[in-house]
Amino acid sequence: MAEETDSGVGSMPDSSKDCTPEKKRRLSSSFDEDDEDDETFSERLWGLTEMFPEKVRDASFSAFCGTKHGLKSLYSFARTSMWIIFSSSAILLAPVMFEVERAQVEEAQRSEQRQALLGPHTAIAGGPPPIR
């Protein structure tokens, strides 16, 4: 195996590699980041609004508020209309469903009565044969 040799450039305290402007800038920026207070995401966004003109900020705020109001109104309308539709359908369709169920029960009772009186085959056939 070949033995790796160290050039010694990295181990020298005042080497030209340590004095490059990029390294100094990196070292100083890392210390500066620790000294600064961390700002929240909302604070950063609020700070970014200062770079736009007043008209743009006002227009975007108006668009946001209009959209918010529109969505609230749409939600309220949808909620109210769904309540009206479902409650009306329950009130209007419940009697119809009860009548259909009552008619089916009456038909089943008639069928049982025919079967008891005339025998099991007449209930299946639908009653006595028609008279000619």
Summarize the structure.
Belongs to the Tom22 family. The chain has 132 residues and is an all-alpha fold. The chain is built from 4 helices and no strands.
Main attributes?
single chain, 132 residues, mainly alpha, 71% helix, 0% strand, transport, membrane
Share of helical residues: over 70%
* Backbone shape: elongated
Alpha-beta content class: mainly alpha
**Low-confidence segments, ≥5 residues, pLDDT <50?**
none
Overall residue-averaged pLDDT value: 79
Beta-strand share of residues: under 5%
What's the count of strands? 0
* Assembly annotation: single chain
Element pattern in H and E: HHHH
Q: For the terminal residues, how far apart are their CA atoms?
A: 117 Å
The major β-sheet equals:
none
| Rounded Rg | 43 Å
Q: What is the number of helices?
A: 4
How does this structure look, described?
- The chain has 132 residues and is mostly helical.
- The protein is 71% helix and 0% strand.
- The protein contains four helices and no strands.
- It is elongated, with a radius of gyration of 43 Å.
- It starts with 20 loop residues before the first helix and ends in a 7-residue tail after the last helix.
- The model has no long low-confidence stretch (mean pLDDT 79).
